[in-house]
Amino acid sequence: MAEKKLFLLDAFALIYRGYFALNANTKFNPINSKGLDTSAILGFTNTLVEVLTKQKPTHIAVVFDTAAPTARHEDFTDYKANRQEMPNAIAIAIPYIKEIIKAFKIPVIESDGYEADDVIGTLAKKAEKKGFITYMMTPDKDFGQLVSENIFIYKPGRFGNDAEILGVKEVCEKFEVQNPQQVIDILGLWGDAIDNIPGIPGVGEKTAKQLIKEFGSIENLLNNTRSLKGKLKEKVEENKEKAILSKKLATILLNAPVEFDENALILEEPDKEKVLEIFSELEFRTLSKRILGKEIQSATISGQLDIFGQGQEIEQNIMPEIKTTDWKTITNTQHTYTLVQKEEDLFHLVSTLLQQSEVCFDTETTSLSIIDAELVGIAFSFKKSEGFYIPIPPEKEKAIKILSILSPFFENENILKIGQNIKYDLHILKNYGIEVKGKLFDTMLAHYLLHPDKKHNMDFLAETYLFYRPVSIETLIGKKGKAQGNMRNVPLENIKEYAAEDADITLQLKIVFADLLKENETEELFYQIETPLIRVLANMEHEGVNVDVNFLKNYSLQLQTGILELEQSIYQKTGAQFNIDSPKQLGEILFEKLKIEENVKKTKTGQYATGEEILSKLAKKHPIIDDILSYRELRKLKNTYVDSIPEMVNEKTKRVHTSFMQTVAATGRLSSNNPNLQNIPIRTEKGRMIRKAFIPRNENYLLLSADYSQVELRIIAALSEEQNMIADFVAGKDIHAATAANVFNVPLHEVTKDLRAKAKAVNFGIIYGQTAFGLAENIGISRTEAKEIIDTYFIKYPGIKTYMENNIKRAKENGYVETIMKRKRYLNDINSSNATVRGFAERNAINAPIQGSAADIIKKAMIEIDAQLRQQHLKTKMILQVHDELVFDLYIPEKETVMNMVKQKMENAVELQVPLLTEMNTGANWLEAH
Fold this sequence. Notes:
Taq DNA Polymerase, Chain T, domain 4; 37 helices; Rossmann fold; alpha/beta; Nucleotidyltransferase, domain 5; 4 domains
């Protein structure tokens, strides 16, 4: 009897994988003539073809997640809360992908209330009982818990590599367990950042494996914490409930309500006419020719179909990925990388470096910390395929001696210094007393300006532009995590090859990107704004900010007291104790026990909707609602900010060193992490209190906040050349009151607070392309009234409407819009046939030039302010940037000088038809100063 071979495809995991693989190749244009981004569709189709041609399953199914919440969401409100919004290309791809699967006559299986993992797990176990060999096709590590003698994980290969098949042996070796079911215990302790499964804080992969190796299970560990020691014992005992919850969240359910009908899963011959029809619509010409231009041949084994024949050739044409054998690598590319250890050789190298017009350099260090990392070595390259590596000893005196020999090169202002994420290298050298002078060229930053929506890491850039696959750092020090090794311990020959290759490849990328920047007409933005900003941000990061840890600890206790009081109040008002964090239990209490609303909105799974928007509308119906909303607010503040920020204080400096990133937000705005300053709450009183923790350096300093006033409205007035709005700004009028007077046809002195609030909502809503429906929801009026307000607005401010229409038109013609400094925002979906997707792109066409211009303006101001602070040798330091605000550690004797200078530079950063206005204040903490 022939082997029954079942493949269960984890749809979304494979769709995302295909999408990112295709977008990694800049030679592939995913947009067809209709404006549809086909990358996710084509990526998944390639994966499907791979399994059909290479593995020849007898049975197959594709399993999708649904939008409905699952039991995991009921157990843990924040489950998967960290997930980023689905890319538009994937959202619009789903219907097409399902049509393709249907045309291939492959069943689609999904079940509301259960994840695809649960459905696959349930089917795999049922299939096993019926004698099937089952392959779960997914890159997800969680599936390791399901592996058995007859159930395997099938991880599709990438870039032409073979697929990886994991059985019991491979899973047990990977997770260092006795049986695959213990994978659940590992995940329960370790947690999962992608799914927001908490695990035990501070317990990483290595510790989790050690604990399960010793105790066998989470339950046994928790019953024997007395045998643990120190901080680990404390962490485990304090987080017992989190561990149990995390194990539950990580457990794949095997009772999903799906039947296993093996006849329904038999692989059939596809509907070729339907496949051709879909491929024609999508303009998959090569794919249609390769697959449908050949006869379908029956397989020799009953129940199997070698549907496409020549599968390898098809796969190469579907997915524009380079085969492994085609990559250039360090092993097949001629190169000369030299180790420099003797002092005389070092002097000779420096002499050669000083003769160059541009040199790429790269530091190797012991960690990614800009404060704590030790320098391990420096690599240089100034000619393709050539590089030099200088090891740096751990002893500080010896290291400084070597660096003093190199300093004439670093401090030479006539030599262009090239790097990949060069800001990090500036930090490291600064720690050793070396200031890197001269112009800079950062390949990561250059690529960001060319393709802001793509990845910018060196491996991706090398593979995409040079068809070169660099040595992976994981081959030297292992995978990321607590178990990762240290570059200090890597053999000298290995690190020499790795580091010199990095410098060599970065040099080659610079040559490519310099030409592309010119072709793209973004040279001025790169050289005048983004590159000078590197040093400004490095100075800010190095300076850091002082944080009042004691205040945060006390505030945490206050919040915890408030949380407990609210818990008791909620229990008292309901007459029951329940899990307030469980939407399911909360809904039952509110709408079944208390009956505070009859016509209740429910989710797809039938449970009551208890989101903030729903509860806010019910606040007047029962006092418990205010308690619940307050409870949620306090919990989030405590866990996300108040308890986290003290852990970010550096032990050496006693300050928090935020990282500012230039290459994340496609609009051009800066982003930050550790902490994420943009997300620190400001709208509620308790949220604003967090800013009170950010304090000056000492008693001789204050914090100065300088914030652009209504900068985006001023920009849209200038860009649109709307004369009525320009006149109001020039006259110094309250713009929202002036708008209210115009739109509601009342004298300015008769504008009420309510009318001003409505006008403000319209002003800011217009920037984001808000519709009448959105405005109505926002300010609580009818849709008819909202439409009348917007229509009147455009009559009073016709230039705004013309600007919006023209921007959308230009975007459709060019594929992008620009800021005042020629920053391009590419809008691939602007001509999409899908109205929802196209609408999103059109709103971006209106908003991106405004947000991007605001980013350009504050960046230019930052560069000029930083230059003045240094030229005047002032003690005041610029330390934070958040949205349109700059924060300074202000030396009190310099107060008047600095405030005048900052105001002048911010308000004159660019020349517009409207004045830029800066609001400034000082205080003993950020809250007072804001």
